[in-house]
Amino acid sequence: MHLVKSLAPAVARVSSVEAFRAGFGAFVGLGLVGLFLLSPQIDTELGLYLVAPFGASSVLLFAVPNSPLAQPWSAIVGNMVAALVGVAVCLSVGDPALRVALAVGLAITATILCRAVHPPAGAVAMTAAMSPDAIADMGFWFALAPIGLGTVALVMLAAIYARLTGRHYPFRQFEDPSAHGTADRNPTERLGLSEDVLEDILERYSQSFNLGVEDLARLIGAAELLAAAQTSGVSTAQEIMSRNLVTVGPKTAMKDIADLFRKHRFTALPVVKGDGTFIGVIFQMHLINQVRAFAMRHNRSYVEALRRLLDLERDKPITAEYIMSVAGPRATTSTPIGALLPMMADGDTDAVPIIEYGKIVGIVTRTDLIAALARSAARGTASAAND
What we know:
Elements: H1 2-6, H2 16-37, H3 53-63, H4 72-92, H5 96-113, H6 120-129, H7 132-138, H8 141-164, H9 195-204, H10 213-230, H11 254-264, E1 268-272, E2 278-283, H12 284-298, H13 302-312, H14 320-323, H15 337-345, E3 351-356, E4 359-365, H16 366-386
Antiparallel strand pairs: 1-2, 3-4
Helix pairs in contact: 2-3, 2-8, 3-6, 3-8, 4-5, 4-6, 4-8, 5-6, 10-15, 12-13
C-alpha cells in the first residue's frame, strides 16, 4: 500500500488556467526564439540553431519560474558551463558511451560548484558529447551560440511573459523593498529571522535547489498567520463579518460616494446591481487616486482637482462603475479566517466582500479581523489568569 501511494503524483494540483499559462508561455518563447534568432537547421558556421535542451529550459522558465533552478544565473551560466564541459570532453574522449557519461557527470559537478544548477544543462553536455562532427567544426563556439544566445533569449522572454501574466521572474530577493517601497519587509514576512538563518534552514534540510530564501520567508509568514487564526477561537468569515451593509449602484455619482465615505467613515463600499448582485468594491484610495491623477494631468493642487471633479459631474458624471475594483479578493461565509488574514496583512486590501451565489451577504474589514483577534487574546489572558 505504501509503495502504491509513493507512485502517486507528488506535485500539488494546479489550476487549468496556470497550466495553460505555462504551456502558452513556452510556445511563445520557443516560437519567438526559433523565428527570430535561430534556425531549425544546424548551422555550424554561426551556431544559430535550436537544440533540444531549450525545451527542457522552457519547462522551468515558464512552468516553475520561482524555482532557484530556473533563475537567470542558473539557466544562463548552467547551460554555458555545461556546454564548455561537453565540448571539452567531446574533443578529448573517443569512446561514445564514456564520452556521454563523463560529459554529463562533469557538467553536474561544474554547475554545482558555480552555484548554477539547471537540469537542462545535463542535456546540453550530452548534446555536445553526442555530436562529434558538429563540435569538430564549431569547437567552443557552441557554448556561445546556440547555447548562450538561445538561453539568454529564453530568459528575457520568460521575464517579459511573467510580468504580462502577473507572475514574478526573476524571483523576489530577500532584500527587496516592501510593496510600499520602504526598506521594511512586508508585514507577513517580518519573521525576526535573518537571511543567513533562512539560508541555513534550507541547507540543513537540503532544500536549496527547490526553494529560495524569499519564498521560504513568505511560506513561514503564511504558516504563522494560519496558526494564529486557528488559535483565535474564530473559524470562518461568517462569525466576524459585517452584515448590515451600505452599498451603491454602478451609476452612483462620485460626489454621493464621497458623502457616504465621510458620513459613515467606511474604508470600502460594495457596488451592486439592482437585484443585489455584487459587481465590485470601491476603496477610499480609489477616490484619492482619481483626485491625484486629475491634479497631475491638469497641473492643479489636490483641492482644486477635487472641486473640479465634483463640478464635472454636472456635465459628465464620474460614477462608481468607473472607479470600482472588480479584481480584488473575495470570500464566502465558510472561508477560514486563516485565508482572510494574508489577503489584508500586506495592506493591499482594506476589506474582503463575502459572496454567496453572486450576491454580497457581508464584508470583513481589517477592523473586524483586529477586533476578533483582540477578543481572542483577551480570552486567552483571562483563562491564563484563572489557571
